[in-house]
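Blackboard transcription, Thursday session:
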Amino acid sequence: MNRFTDTFSEPLHCDAVKPAVYCQCVSQKQRRVTLRDIADETGLSLAAVSYAMRGLQLPLETRQRVQEVADRLGYQADPIARALASGRTGYVGVLCGSLGDLWQQGIAAALGRGLLQASRQALIVDASNDPALEASLAAQLVDQRVDALICLPIDPAAEHWRQVAERTVLVSIGDALPGVSTAAEVVFDNEATVSSALEQLARLGHRNIAVLTPATIATPDRPAEVVVHRLAAELGIRATLHTSPYELDGAHAVAREILAGADPPTAFFCLADSMAYGVYAATRELGLRVPEDLSVLGYDDNPVSGLLTPPLSSYRWPIELLVSSVVERTVRAIDEGKHSRRKVLVPIAQPRQSVGPPKSR
Amino acid sequence: MNRFTDTFSEPLHCDAVKPAVYCQCVSQKQRRVTLRDIADETGLSLAAVSYAMRGLQLPLETRQRVQEVADRLGYQADPIARALASGRTGYVGVLCGSLGDLWQQGIAAALGRGLLQASRQALIVDASNDPALEASLAAQLVDQRVDALICLPIDPAAEHWRQVAERTVLVSIGDALPGVSTAAEVVFDNEATVSSALEQLARLGHRNIAVLTPATIATPDRPAEVVVHRLAAELGIRATLHTSPYELDGAHAVAREILAGADPPTAFFCLADSMAYGVYAATRELGLRVPEDLSVLGYDDNPVSGLLTPPLSSYRWPIELLVSSVVERTVRAIDEGKHSRRKVLVPIAQPRQSVGPPKSR
DNA sequence: AAGAAGTCGTGAACCGCTTCACTGATACGT
DNA sequence: ACGTATCAGTGAAGCGGTTCACGACTTCTT
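(Written on the board underneath:)
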């Protein structure tokens, strides 16, 4: 009966009684076409149309008839109503630990595209490297009823991940979340990278290498140290591990200090390109040439790394592979509740001109 | 009565009849706390609680009582239900013409943060420089019921903006959308930048300047050409306008051609830093030094521009100002339906070391 | 004292879709 | 010919809020 008044009152209202209101009607955002409209038009019930639009149950002929009317009327399902009714929003949260980092921007953008193709909408959110903010944003996204949350965690060991996993599908990129029941994990094999980098440098003759790793939240164990020392021992070289901020400026200061110290290294391996930029800045300041006086190796392969003088050798992630497998696993976890096995990604070397043999002393 | 069965059937079900099902109950994502729960707890009606939670109508004492219970129960309003009922989703679409460009990434990330502060969720979407995709994504966002759409348009003159504006609040950044009733526009005064750049270069003695502008969709009028020529005439210098792709590689090729041509310019003004990188690449290839042999001036001030050799002089946008005013205007348009006047933003010069006087010939 | 004008709060409709339980009708097996 | 499946489709109950119209109870006017 509501529809009755709807349908009949409007033209009456507008043409005959008060034309002034008619203008309002026109200027208003137009009314949506709803399932009701299609139901009325086809003479079917609301439920039948709902099923038909989703290709369920009904015979092909009916589905086609409904589809046709829907097209003619320009029907677009209201995702909000659908979400409320079905319990699935179609939203997937993408919580980036630090979207300031270019590699995260790249992944986030690619995830946005990939999810869109899988008919989901990404909600990209940035924790700006603040663990407390990360926790609160995660909770906020869960409250927003995302179907899944994909994270590039700042602190994989943080408590909040466990709570998120209890409330939604949780997928982690980069690091595994220890003790959390994630639906999928695509992790970076940093150990393989460190190994490859040190080996490469050792082969060129470097015997004293500085490894710069981003200052992360303290974790129970610090695997990086162990790994670096073991590998160095195996290669018979010296490798020192230094923590440094992700950002250029911070890394610049750290690098300057290292280079000014006693027995400076002949090569840097930086676990982020942005830190390698900082090393470049330090070399410029100290009048050192890359790679003659100092070899520098990055990690991320930012698009600009190829532009520096000299172009920075680096490692890059197979982003398309990463994103497609994350999206696929996430969607499967949402739709079928199936958890996937952990997937380990090995980076691809991108040699350029910032690495060479050490100066003979 | 539904609540009755809810409350009573579950323990019965689980403990007595089939314990197996109970486990399922436990492992399930826990049930949300709803307004109903608070209503039951306080003895108030649903409507009263709804009002109270939003600080409406009711006396302070009641509101506090409700708030207290809500806190105790850990109530979080369901944004989906709220959206369906109120017609406002709290989502704001951010449609970036080409999120590959760093300046757009910066703005998008900042908008995400700013909107979050205004308790809205940004839906960031990338048209990858494809006008057709831009149109379809815009429609998709509108169908998703965003409260507003903020765009960084590829083609401001495109037809689809008009349709979007009819269906939602439309805000444009960068360019004005001719003939479209936008709720707000924060536009870049590119003319001022070009003028400033040419003046600066002319003052240093440059008499032959190449201006590189991104290849955009053909618009009815090409104001850039007119502007450049007028300004050049005023300054008594020669300035040639070249279109080039946004990306490094494309710009590289264009710059190489220009520099290899007859009567090459002594300075480049690039309307995007990424294009300036291409010019740098061309100079390296041709053995030219910056700024001694060629001055280069960029536009955007990417974070990496300061890292090049030599650091690139550029212009940057006051991003915080841009974002805060866009967010403010957008929110006002959503909440109060008020359209704002166009705001024009003038970029800030960021001088570094890529500009100098021309070599005396 | 009687009506007017608030306060505080309630019941019910509604947003647009999904989904469950169920009905009639037709086809099937024997 | 009779009971049983299967098919095509329906009615109504949600989902979790918002909002409108209205009622009971105080308080203020005059």
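Lecturer's comment: Chain A has three domains: 2-85, 86-188+319-348, 190-316.
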